[in-house]
């Protein structure tokens, strides 16, 4: 069987990517930064037991349970992600080998280092496929790797398998309105995967130990064209967040929009906004969710004061559970909501913050 390189950066996305990789070939994980060295030689048969010992590395699971529509809005579960995945977890989800990449330039040039590492390892291992999570920089990394390898790139991947001529990839296109099956006709298949649509499943236990390789990477001078100056801490990537709280015009002001941000932080999720809220300057442009902005697929989508135009619904309607709060009983968002609350979004947000704090 051919190998599949998997960019394993976070706990949740790595498990989903490895699950998908097993359908194509032999998964090989590529990690950056710290990986638990003591677990390098762990037998995959016992990987699950070792992973449980290291469960302290996983953020606490948050849950808010609906009691009634006056004080709570829906049920949400968000499992935190680990930025430094451990070898036992990778083995449990099917990795047969791990490449650890070290680079002093990762902090300043994160995307470029990942592109160079994947291109280098592809030249060494000759995989049939490379998988990355479709986060805010996933499509960029996938596209640049494909150019480096003279290959093709597929984005919006939700499934894949090995066909007679190579990997066959199922993609969501036109805001998820339909699915297509695609193949790359030349070179390595490079995929940006919607990991939120992949159910992570552990691999069947197998005998043997993980193979481990290391790569020390220094960027050529010509590739140091941009440097990351700062990164806002504790900000979740919208495209991979399990919980997303949206703020809209119904919150009344920028100060009102901060209520949506506070609820998102309390739930361990991300914040997005409607087109109107973005136009008013209440949030950053990249937080806008609509058909030409960011498309999301969270487990829980909580809309506070979002009326739900057709362009906004196109960007969020595939969420597993949709909870909407708006004063207008005829708001279009209620047409796709699993739970609709007619009322003032600001009052509901304050009540929800009180309830979350009480349950902690």
Topology:
Layout: E1 3-7, H1 11-22, E2 26-32, H2 47-53, E3 62-64, E4 76-78, H3 87-92, E5 97-102, H4 110-125, E6 129-133, H5 138-149, E7 152-163, E8 166-173, E9 178-182, E10 189-193, E11 211-216, E12 243-247, H6 254-267, E13 270-273, H7 275-279, E14 300-304, H8 310-316, E15 321-326, E16 339-342, H9 345-359
Parallel strand pairs: 1-2, 1-6, 2-5, 5-11, 6-10, 7-10, 12-13, 12-14, 14-15, 15-16
Antiparallel strand pairs: 3-4, 7-8, 8-9
Helix pairs in contact: 4-5, 6-9
How would you describe this protein?
The structure is a single chain. The protein is an alpha/beta fold. The protein has two domains: 3-72 and 82-223, HUPs (Rossmann fold); 243-359, Rossmann fold (3-Layer(aba) Sandwich). It has nine helices and 16 strands. The strands form three sheets. A nine-stranded mixed sheet has the order 9-8-7-10-6-1-2-5-11, sandwiched between helices. A five-stranded parallel sheet has the order 13-12-14-15-16. Helix 4 packs across helix 5 (138-149) and helix 6 runs parallel beside helix 9. It is elongated and about 60 Å long.
């Amino acid at each position: 069987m051919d190998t599949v390189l998997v960019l394993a950066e976070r706990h949740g996305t790595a498990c989903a990517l490895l699950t998908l990789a097993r359908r194509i070939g032999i998964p090989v994980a590529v990690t950056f930064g710290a990986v638990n060295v003591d677990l390098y030689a762990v037998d995959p048969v016992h990987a699950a037991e070792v992973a449980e010992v290291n469960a302290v590395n996983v953020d606490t699971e948050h849950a808010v349970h609906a009691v009634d529509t006056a004080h709570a809005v829906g049920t949400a579960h968000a499992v935190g992600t680990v930025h430094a995945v451990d070898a036992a977890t990778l083995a449990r989800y099917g990795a047969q080998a791990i490449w650890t990449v070290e680079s002093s330039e990762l902090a300043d040039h994160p995307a470029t280092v990942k592109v160079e590492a994947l291109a280098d390892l592809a030249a060494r291992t000759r995989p049939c496929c490379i998988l990355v999570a479709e986060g805010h920089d996933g499509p960029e990394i996938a596209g640049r790797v494909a150019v480096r390898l003279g290959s093709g790139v597929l984005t919006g991947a939700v499934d894949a398998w090995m066909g007679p001529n190579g990997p066959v990839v199922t993609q969501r296109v036109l805001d998820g309105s339909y699915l297509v099956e695609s193949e790359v006709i030349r070179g390595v298949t490079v995929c940006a995967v919607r990991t939120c649509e992949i159910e992570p499943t552990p691999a069947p236990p197998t005998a043997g130990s993980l193979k481990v390789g290391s790569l020390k990477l220094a960027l050529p001078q010509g590739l140091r064209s941009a440097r990351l100056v700062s990164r806002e801490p504790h900000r979740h990537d919208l495209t991979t967040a399990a919980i997303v709280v949206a703020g809209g015009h119904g919150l009344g002001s920028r100060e009102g929009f901060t209520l949506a941000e506070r609820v998102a932080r309390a739930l361990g999720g991300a914040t997005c906004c409607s087109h109107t809220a973005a136009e008013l300057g209440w949030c950053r442009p990249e937080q806008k969710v609509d058909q030409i902005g960011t498309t999301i697929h969270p487990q829980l989508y909580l809309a506070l004061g979002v009326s739900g135009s057709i362009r906004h619904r196109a960007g969020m309607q595939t969420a597993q559970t949709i909870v909407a709060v708006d004063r207008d009983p005829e708001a279009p968002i209620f047409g796709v909501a699993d739970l609709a609350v007619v009322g003032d979004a600001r009052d509901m947000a304050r009540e929800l913050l009180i309830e979350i704090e009480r349950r902690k």
